[in-house]
């Protein structure tokens, strides 16, 4: 009996097959174990994977990259607006939903992010089936911890449209732990594991508590401004400066030349993870001139030194947040393609000198392997050595905060439901308002930090016609978050019993 695990990332996708008691990543038709999450539209066909990425230089306007950023989001979502600004393929508003504008030559067509994701999932399904030599539909799909219910549903629907029977969605940090069997072989006792993931466009660091075979997220920090593409970009800029030094031409303002350099830098970056130097050759980079440059690993590390420091910083902040020291962590799991970089691994080792660093599974394959193991567990425990029941506990994806004014009038944000809180959950909070106030306005936010923006406001409740009195009003707020992420809030003035309630459908 075979089952598969699929990791659909922002820049790449990867599929692992669980068969005969073990999970292995399978290579695609190009022989690569990781497939670019890129879809290109041409006159009569759609192409997913490496061919789409390689053809992007000539077909940038009809090539979709990083579709996962806007899956399940409305057009006015800040993430969609950011994606729209960065995308070479036009993103337009159709009924408050983002759509890609594709020019097929004969007509303009509008493609939804879910349709693009479906093509990538279909590519993964084909890859798994060609490796197995038979049809396989049962799959476990991984999702980032911070994904809300809408994004999860969109990802699930895209996978199902591609022909998958989705057994379960599993959070990426949990999949990383499953890949190494953490907490499964000796399920008694509590330990803390740090999962470090550096993908193509984002960095996330998660601290997990492992107790009796159960995984619980204590806290997670994500940084969308740091990812493997930043390293590629820094290297491409260095190559552009070398070209200028040699040929006296500045190509940084030429999009096509820079895209060629990005492709070359990307190949070099991967090579430098295993070799001490890499040769970058670009045919006809600018004005018919070829470019040839040798980059050493030491030069790459120097060019990207500030990025390495930026990639390590969130670890310390996260440990402080959960009140743990580096010695409290029993294992560090590396995941994400850019976690392969030797310099980065060395910096993490220096931070955790006495802790086991798990990198025996290639970091870009850890998450799909964990998903495939989960699929094997779900399909039949007789085929796997893991005999522990696997329980998924839904958690709150972001901090839920209440805003109130301090004595000086400054805004104070109090976290009522921290990210990682197992659901369902209930919290009660009492805030005091001056007795001479006839109304009280309560605002709730969801965020991954202590500072909030207006976009992150999820609810506003106003209690009106309060009795004026000398002592303060005691306003009791009760939050209840269900397993599906919906949030129910009631506010009650203790003195008068006046009450208001609101339900937010999806808040995680």
From TrEMBL:
Pfam families: HSP70. Signal peptide: none annotated. The keyword Aminoacyl-tRNA synthetase does not apply. GO terms for cellular component: cytoplasm; cytosol; nucleus; plasma membrane. Its main location: cytoplasm. The keyword Nucleotide-binding applies. InterPro entries: ATPase_NBD (IPR043129), HSP70_peptide-bd_sf (IPR029047), Hsp_70_fam (IPR013126), HSPA14_NBD (IPR042049). Keywords: ATP-binding, Chaperone, Cytoplasm, Nucleotide-binding. Transmembrane segments: none annotated. GO terms for biological process: protein refolding. It comes from the Eukaryota. GO terms for molecular function: ATP binding; ATP hydrolysis activity; ATP-dependent protein folding chaperone; heat shock protein binding; protein folding chaperone. It is found in: Cytoplasm, Cytosol. Belongs to the heat shock protein 70 family. PANTHER family: HEAT SHOCK PROTEIN 70KDA (PTHR19375). This is Heat shock protein 14. It comes from Lepisosteus oculatus (Spotted gar).
């Amino acid at each position: 009996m075979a089952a598969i695990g699929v990791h659909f990332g922002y820049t790449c996708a990867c599929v692992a097959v669980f068969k005969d008691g073990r999970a292995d990543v399978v290579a695609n038709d190009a022989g690569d174990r990781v497939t670019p999450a890129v879809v290109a539209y041409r006159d009569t066909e759609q192409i997913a994977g490496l061919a789409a990425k390689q053809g992007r230089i000539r077909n940038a306007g009809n090539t979709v990259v990083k579709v996962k950023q806007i899956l399940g989001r409305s057009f006015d979502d800040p993430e969609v607006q950011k994606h729209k600004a960065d995308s070479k393929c036009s993103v337009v508003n159709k009924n408050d939903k983002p759509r890609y504008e594709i020019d097929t030559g004969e007509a303009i067509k509008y493609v939804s992010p879910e349709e693009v994701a479906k093509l990538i999932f279909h590519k993964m399904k084909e890859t798994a089936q060609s490796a197995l030599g038979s049809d396989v539909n049962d799959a476990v799909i991984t999702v980032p911890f911070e994904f809300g219910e809408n994004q999860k549903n969109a990802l699930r629907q895209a996978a199902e449209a591609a022909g998958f029977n989705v057994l379960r969605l599993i959070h990426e940090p949990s999949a990383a732990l499953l890949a190494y069997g953490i907490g499964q072989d000796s399920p008694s006792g509590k330990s803390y594991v740090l999962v470090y993931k550096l993908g193509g466009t984002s960095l996330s660091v998660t601290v997990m508590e492992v107790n009796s075979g159960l995984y619980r997220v204590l806290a997670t920090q994500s940084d969308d401004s740091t990812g493997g593409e930043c390293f590629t970009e820094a290297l491409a800029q260095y190559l552009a400066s070398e070209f200028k030094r040699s040929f006296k031409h500045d190509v940084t303002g030429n999009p096509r030349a820079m895209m060629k350099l990005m492709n070359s830098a990307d190949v070099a970056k991967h090579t430098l993870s295993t070799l001490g130097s890499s040769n970058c050759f670009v045919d006809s980079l600018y004005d018919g001139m070829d470019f040839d440059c040798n980059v050493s690993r030491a030069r790459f590390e120097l060019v990207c030194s500030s990025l390495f420091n930026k990639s390590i910083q969130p670890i310390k902040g996260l440990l402080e947040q959960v009140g743990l020291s580096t010695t409290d962590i029993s294992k560090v799991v590396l995941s994400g393609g850019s976690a392969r970089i030797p310099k980065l691994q060395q910096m993490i080792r220096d931070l955790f000198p006495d802790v086991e660093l798990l990198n025996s599974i290639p970091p870009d394959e850890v998450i799909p392997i964990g998903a495939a193991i989960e699929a094997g567990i779900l399909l039949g425990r007789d085929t796997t050595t893991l005999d522990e029941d696997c329980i998924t506990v839904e958690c709150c994806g972001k901090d839920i905060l209440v805003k109130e004014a301090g004595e000086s009038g400054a805004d104070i944000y109090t976290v009522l439901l921290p990210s990682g809180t197992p659901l369902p959950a209930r919290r009660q909070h009492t805030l005091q308002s001056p007795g001479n106030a006839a109304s009280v306005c309560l605002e709730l936010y969801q965020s991954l930090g202590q500072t909030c923006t207006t976009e992150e406001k999820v609810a506003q409740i106003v209690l009106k016609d309060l009795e004026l009195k000398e002592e303060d009003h005691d306003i009791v707020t009760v939050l209840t978050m269900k397993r599906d992420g919906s949030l129910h809030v009631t506010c009650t003035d203790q003195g008068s019993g006046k009450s208001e309630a609101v339900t937010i459908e999806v808040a995680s």
